[in-house]
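Contributing new complexes? Match this layout with biotinyl-5-AMP.
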Amino acid sequence: VLPLLRGKWGRPYYHYPQLQSTNETLKQMAASLPEGAVVVAEEQAGGKGRRGRSWHSPPGGIWFSLLLRPAVHPLALLSLPLVLSLAVVKSLSGFFPELDWALKWPNDILCRGKKLGGVLVEVAAETEQVHWAVAGIGINVNISSFPPELEGRATSLELCRGKKSCRPCLLAAILERAEELYSLWCREGFAPLAKDYQALFLYRGRRVRVEEEGRFWEGKAEGVDDKGRLVLRLDDGSLRLLLGGEVTLREV
Ligand code: BT5
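Output block (do not edit by hand):
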């Protein structure tokens, strides 16, 4: 079933029963496609997370990638995963306000404290110019159980709601909301979205440990600044601003 699309995104729309990874397929086609092109797969055999991690993608999820051509400086792309994960939570919480939604900086979507989805942005850019960004979004929807290694950490809409959801309806709403937030972000940067992100930010005010390229930082997570950076208060009282991308955050 095709989602009913109200915005510009989702044209063209490619739907596959199975792919290795929607990001890989869209990256190969990127040169000839316009902004807003979408690749969806019912299941992925080689779904990817960040830093070479794998993404469990059985049938029943929403696994898709979106082609973007933002006219921004490559460094500004570090806040793009935040914009998209915020759009996902805003649209899902619109459907299901009774569930407890949160964002784990930079790219995790959580429901009732467990991971329900994630965002992976891959970029082709030169020093000053972005050619394209492929944004992969994975959402666990109609999935009733997880393999042992994800048990206790992952969840799905089906587990949270106790019933199945209409995936094309959700995808259409997510595309619409993401397009809206993205165009605001292209015009004005992350600043107008920072407050909304902050309100959903899981570890706000809590003690966290951050791994950044093999280095560790520990302190209190004060929030997210107007560029989407994590504001960390270190034990000596100083502030450290961390960029997303290759960073992993844990509560301690
Ligand atoms: C992410 O990475 O969260 C980005 C996930 C992006 C997936 C989409 S699906 C469509 C598109 N095509 C792709 O190939 N990828 C994108 P990261 O923050 O690195 O989290 C990865 C970690 O999450 C793994 O190491 C597991 O611990 C956990 N994980 C794997 N599959 C999961 C799932 N289905 N639900 C919840 N957690 C999962």
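Reviewers usually confirm one structural detail per submission. For this one: The radius of gyration is 17 Å.
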